[in-house]
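[Q] Does anyone have a clean structure-token version of this?
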Amino acid sequence: MKDKQIVPTGEERVMRENDFIVSKTDCAGRITYGNSIFVEYSGYTESELLGKQHNIVRHPDMPRSVFKLLWDTIAQKREIFAYVKNLSRDGSFYWVLANVTASLDARGNIIGYYSVRRKPHPAAIATIVPLYQAMLAAEQRAGAKSAIEAGTKVLIDIISAKGLSYDEFILTI
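[A] Here you go.
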């Protein structure tokens, strides 16, 4: 679990153009591998990351409904792209465009997950920030029991109004 003492500072760390953050998790979301760029941006050492839940870098500005969509999609052995705001150990944050896929064994069973993250385009983040703020506000208004459904409704309503699927929306902003 994440260190509860971390307080977001509002300071942004912007990824370099050619950086790729790579991590692998087991089926329960525990980190089994993180490349040096992941270690750098997270602010944790490799040994501090290994075995921890991947949500160790979850920023409180992220709607829970985004992660529900992500987990539901990869559990179906489908890849997903998502914009994610991560929290570094020092309280700073960094945005990524994540591509997450299931890792399969020879029989097609899920044995873990693989994620590659890269620097997102600033215009995409300008679109995502108000969307995530609206989703998070809906989650908070709905309360814990109905939060995910409320946040998901905001997302679906917005992308449906644009006549797009989730994948089309994410890949075109």
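[Q] Thanks! Anything notable?
[A] Helices lie at 36-42, 46-49, 64-75, 122-142, 147-161, 166-172.
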